[in-house]
Amino acid sequence: MADSLRIGIAGLGTVGSSLVRILQQRSKELAITCGRAIEIIAVSARDRSRDRGLDLAGITWFDTPEDMAKKAEIDVFVELVGGASGAAEKAVRAALARGIHVVTANKALLAKHGVELAVMAEEKGALLNFEAAVAGGIPIIKALRESLTGNHVSRIYGIMNGTCNYILTKMEKEGLSFEACLKEAQRLGYAEADPAFDIEGNDTAHKLAILTTLAFGSKISADDIYLEGISNITIEDIQAASDLGYRIKLLGVAHVTESGIEQRVHPTMVPLDSVIAQVDGVTNAVAVESDILGELLMVGPGAGGNATASAVLGDIADIAKSRPGVQQVPVLGRPAKSLSEYRRAKMKSHEGGYFIRLTVKDKAGVFASIATRMAENNISLESIVQHSRVHTEGGPQTIILVTHATMEDAIRKAVKAIKSEKYLVNEPQVIRIERT
Ligand SMILES: NC(=O)c1ccc[n+]([C@@H]2O[C@H](COP(=O)([O-])OP(=O)(O)OC[C@H]3O[C@@H](n4cnc5c(N)ncnc54)[C@H](OP(=O)(O)O)[C@@H]3O)[C@@H](O)[C@H]2O)c1
């Protein structure tokens, strides 16, 4: 049998601890599968004294990940620390500078420095694998990077944040408010104490930016994503969506348009009978539309120690199975230096259906005025109804509009005109409808 693959693991938290356990429990089996043993020879985390319930006997401890990356006699540096910069970034750079392969689950790091790190890895002949960075255990990176080579991808979309999907699912199933469901998500450990990163869509945006690069061959551009979170989704929206045959999901969507690539993260109405609408709770799903293959939908666990460690393990095993001198898969699906500049399509030019919920004063002429403002902006309506579930006699009325495919710019202008009429009781709710 070939020499063992020596790995160093930085980060022994949720994912790192699971990985150590799995590697130790399945060491014999993995050695047979990979043709060589995978040996943990070094680890690093912040607190050496913490009891992690792990057997770290015989494994060298490093006080910093960077130190481990610089000094340990390892073949693979596994980064499970997290964060766009700081300890994780320094250590990954140090490992790549030595030509050591890197496996990471860190979407924040890749969203910010991915192209630069890919160039570095390719110059050094090192691999940089990151299956766990997007949608946890779902093997979407491998699918895009390897299996779909030669396909022209036209659209990629998905549910990539388990916390948001858990909250939206619970709101619908139990009729609870966003705030109540967020508290429950925090109690169960799905949401961080500061959940803004998840619920405002930033986490999904990081993952989408990575997928966009793999799908369309443009440089990672996480700051160029149109972003709307789920914090202003109400139970009324969810009920109205259901009455109209839709379900609300936080989707990340990227597709090619004539003016560039559209990348957006926002609450989205998807048809109730679509497969993606059935993806509940913390589960993730990613769909890819491409010309040769057609439609691909992958559904599975998007987070959690074991699911994420499974993806990390797959990346390590790929390296264990690879042989020196054999052509490696480029980090971002094509040589990093050949990635094109990202050309952002303007959100104003987005075309699709819209759901608009207006809460208005109960007075004559409001209905007609709304219809007129829509017509003035050439918006064709599929329906305009007074929503009876929330109707109280004499009190504010809820009017729900659903449009046919129209331009975002027209919707913005029409909503602005309606707001100037002074019959609105509160801010209009606008939710995009996605064909799935
Ligand atoms: N958890 C998931 O479900 C999941 C899913 C997909 C991707 N990921 C990604 O996987 C990575 C790890 O996530 P996680 O949930 O396992 O995180 P975690 O539980 O917070 O663990 C982080 C680990 O990194 C160590 N660490 C943090 N800062 C450090 C520093 N400055 N120097 C040395 N060690 C440091 C911590 O040490 P101490 O233990 O001593 O504090 C801890 O062991 C992140 O990039 C995350 O985005 C996680």
Strand content: 15-25%
- Give the class from helix and strand content and strand pairing: alpha/beta
The dominant shape is elongated
| Small molecules held by this entry | NADP nicotinamide-adenine-dinucleotide phosphate
Number of strands: 17
User: How many domains make up the coordinates?
Assistant: 3
What would you say this structure looks like, in words?
- 36% of the residues lie in helices and 24% in strands.
- It contains 14 helices and 17 strands.
- Strands 7, 8, 9, 10, 11, 12, 13, 14, 15, 16 and 17 form an eleven-stranded mixed β-sheet that branches. A six-stranded parallel β-sheet has the order 3-2-1-4-5-6, with helices on both faces.
- A hairpin with a 3-residue loop joins strand 11 (283-290) and strand 12.
- Helix 13 runs antiparallel to helix 14 (408-419).
- The model has no long low-confidence stretch (mean pLDDT 95).
- The structure holds NADP nicotinamide-adenine-dinucleotide phosphate (NAP).
- Residues 11-16, 44-47, 50, 64-65, 80-82, 87, 105-107, 132, 136, 303-304, 308 line the site of NADP nicotinamide-adenine-dinucleotide phosphate.
- Pathway: Amino-acid biosynthesis; L-methionine biosynthesis via de novo pathway; L-homoserine from L-aspartate: step 3/3; Amino-acid biosynthesis; L-threonine biosynthesis; L-threonine from L-aspartate: step 3/5.
- It holds the Pfam family ACT.
